[in-house]
Write a structure and sequence with these properties.
about 375 residues, alpha/beta, 7-stranded mixed β-sheet, two-stranded antiparallel sheet, 11 strands, globular
């Protein structure tokens, strides 16, 4: 009896262990499956939001606009910035409205010794709640542009932005973008290129100049992180920054913003996705959405931060909407990008100063590295 009882207990123990193993594996796969479904649902939700916004009417009447402007609470901060609305005023307040040549303007932060190559004006669309972030731009890469201009809807003694009379909020970024380009065309007309960035964008300006040095500013073109949806020739993502030629800016302000056909250019809208609407307007006036790949076919502009690029990401991240939008596919990992990389996006203050320090303040003594074929990589005493 004791022997049979022991055998019975052993069999039951094995069955319980097997059942526990099966249950553990099943739980793992169930959790993984649920996580995958949630991720796909979240990605599709963003896509559906963008698609629904594109089907909305973009020509609301002027009565609604006046109501919105008289009541700042209307609209609020729009989560996706994809709603549409009526016309924005292209006027600016008196602060910072002097001509480009004024030496009193702190925005005109030129280099002491003008560099060879194209003259580049950099401008940043910011807001009262992110002026501190904009100051990090001003004190890092912004100093390397030929001119640095910030646009906001509120004065700031330290940042000294150009103040635009448009509704504040992410949902009104299109109105701010139109007003900013109109202001630049009127007051800063003699630069070769105009680089737009957010206040959480980091730009390697020297590489931007290198990319632009053989391009003609009188040609109607612009460059950046090229997306493929909704615009036939593609358009440039706003977060990674885009650079417009002098002729592109001129055509946008003098031709696109005066166009009557709102299906070709929604110049009467104040709400909407700034980068997408700009791309539609530029296409309508013959401005080319150019490619910025290097000779090896690797991209230079990025709408992500470095932490998303240089380390191999899990496969599930490939379901992100970015991979459906990006015009030129690229790797993730150390070989993701061009060595002539120009921009990152979604860069917080700590990352911005880390990049500034690593790129411009750390010196690498390459002469101390053993040359290939002279023992490089060998342990001491190795033959």
């Amino acid at each position: 009896m004791n022997g049979s009882h022991c055998i019975y207990r052993q069999k039951m123990g094995r069955r319980l262990s097997a059942w526990a193993c099966v249950r553990t594996v099943s739980t793992f796969f169930l959790g993984f499956g649920l996580g995958l479904v949630i991720h796909i649902f979240a990605s599709l939700s963003v896509e559906i939001a963008r698609e629904n916004a594109l089907n909305n009417d973009i020509t609301n009447n002027s009565t609604e606009y006046e109501s919105t402007m008289n009541n700042p609470q209307v609209g609020g901060s729009w989560a996706w910035g994809l709603s549409w609305g009526p016309r924005a005023a292209l006027t600016t307040q008196g602060v910072g409205d002097a001509s480009r040549g004024s030496s009193a303007s702190s925005q005109d932060a030129r280099l002491e010794v003008p560099p060879a190559g194209p003259r580049v004006l950099c401008y940043v669309l910011t807001g009262p709640t992110t002026h501190k972030s904009a100051l990090n731009v001003q004190n890092t890469w912004g100093r390397r542009c030929d001119a640095m201009v910030f646009f906001s809807t509120k004065e700031d003694a330290e940042l000294q932005p150009e103040v635009l009379k448009v509704q504040e909020g992410y949902g009104f970024l299109w109105a701010k973008a139109k007003a900013a380009l109109g202001h630049l065309h009127r007051h800063y007309p003699d630069y070769d290129w105009y680089f737009k960035a957010d206040d959480d964008t980091f730009v390697i300006v020297e590489n931007l100049r290198f990319f632009l040095k053989d391009l003609e500013p009188q040609e109607p073109a612009y460059y950046g992180v090229k997306f493929r949806q909704h615009v036939k020739q593609g358009y440039m993502s706003g977060g990674g920054g885009y650079v417009l030629s002098r002729e592109a800016v001129r055509r946008f302000v003098t031709e696109a913003l005066t166009m009557k056909d709102q299906t070709k250019c929604a110049n009467e809208a104040v709400r909407g996705a700034e980068d997408l609407l700009l791309g539609q307007c530029l296409e309508s006036v013959g401005v080319r959405a150019g490619d910025s790949l290097d000779a090896a076919g690797k991209p230079r502009f990025f709408s992500h931060n470095p932490l998303s690029l240089f380390y191999k990401a899990p496969l599930v991240n490939r379901l992100h909407w970015y991979w459906r939008y990006i015009w030129h596919k690229h790797d993730v990992g150390p070989d993701c990008c061009s060595p002539h990389l120009i921009s990152f996006h979604d860069v917080d203050a700590r990352m911005m100063w880390t990049l500034e320090t690593l790129l411009y303040r750390v010196r690498i003594h390459h002469e101390m590295q053993p040359q290939e074929g002279r023992g490089a990589g060998k342990a001491p005493g190795a033959s």
